[in-house]
Amino acid sequence: MSVQIDALDRKILAALQEDASRSLDEIARLVGSSKTPVWTRIRKLREAGVIGRQTVLLDAEALGLEACFFVLIRTSEHEAGWQKKFLAALRARPEVLEAHRLAGEIDYILKVRVRNARAYDAFYQALISEVRIYNVTALLSMEEIKATTLLPLEQVPSGS
Amino acid sequence: MSVQIDALDRKILAALQEDASRSLDEIARLVGSSKTPVWTRIRKLREAGVIGRQTVLLDAEALGLEACFFVLIRTSEHEAGWQKKFLAALRARPEVLEAHRLAGEIDYILKVRVRNARAYDAFYQALISEVRIYNVTALLSMEEIKATTLLPLEQVPSGS
DNA sequence: CTTGAAAGCGATAACAC
DNA sequence: GTGTTATCGCTTTCAAG
């Protein structure tokens, strides 16, 4: 089960995910509280794992990682050994930014960031040489309309 | 292309995206330099937009946002007016974490985070009542195998 | 590039409400 | 539990060697 999150926690989380460089004082002011209680709550949320990694979002395009693919994968193999190997391969490859196991006829979806189409092909060839895959469809992104890490906290149920 | 990124910049970016709460001193030590040059470079990278938002990653499951859908969208409409309205609708909805316009027969892909299947349906109904959509396939994630915001900086070209 | 220094902040404790 | 105040040492930021 989750953790008890009340309205104040939610405000703190919202302030933090919007800008994690804010000082304790600023967050306290924003949420209408003061330093100590805010600090205690942040510590608890961190310990509970609700607050995870603190990071900086980089501009992939500016860094020359100009191609983004969504990869739909079907497999005929469903034994534990194959799956374990497949997951390990995905986790080991840094160009795989997301990987999900799906319900339905498509088994997996990946999001892959690379320099260009050639780099994607190199990734693809390497992957299929490591594990057997039945069917792959690559969807090339033409335009990133939206990309956010901000969770919709308004929709989070309040802990009793 | 945008900015000159050298090996030192890349190390700094790697250190920062891995843990943005690190102090300047620590980063300087990690990358084998000292405070001021590191600080100057970070400032420039920020101004150039290479370094963007500083944030904290929250655990969606722990917050009760337990369902994640990838939504494949086909449309028959391609005029500017329709597209503008569609993009505005996506940007306005906080449960849409990602949206891409694609090449190929599928026109758009969305990543949507909600509490449960019912909340997804509410989102879906609201969306199709706002803009006309030809065909929608929702892929439900059963397991998040990997989800990272860390870009593969090893693969970033130097200079240029 | 390095030193250094002023201002600010994080992390906690003591105490009152 | 929350708010106030005060503390110490570290950090950011920037000027000048």
Automatic annotation (TrEMBL), chains A, B:
GO terms for molecular function: sequence-specific DNA binding. Pfam families: AsnC_trans_reg, HTH_AsnC-type. GO terms for cellular component: cytosol. The keyword DNA-binding applies. Residues 5-66 form the HTH asnC-type domain. The keyword Transcription applies. SMART domains: HTH_ASNC. GO terms for biological process: regulation of DNA-templated transcription; response to amino acid. CDD domains: HTH_ARSR (cd00090). Keywords: DNA-binding, Transcription, Transcription regulation. This is Lrp/AsnC family transcriptional regulator. It comes from Roseicyclus persicicus.
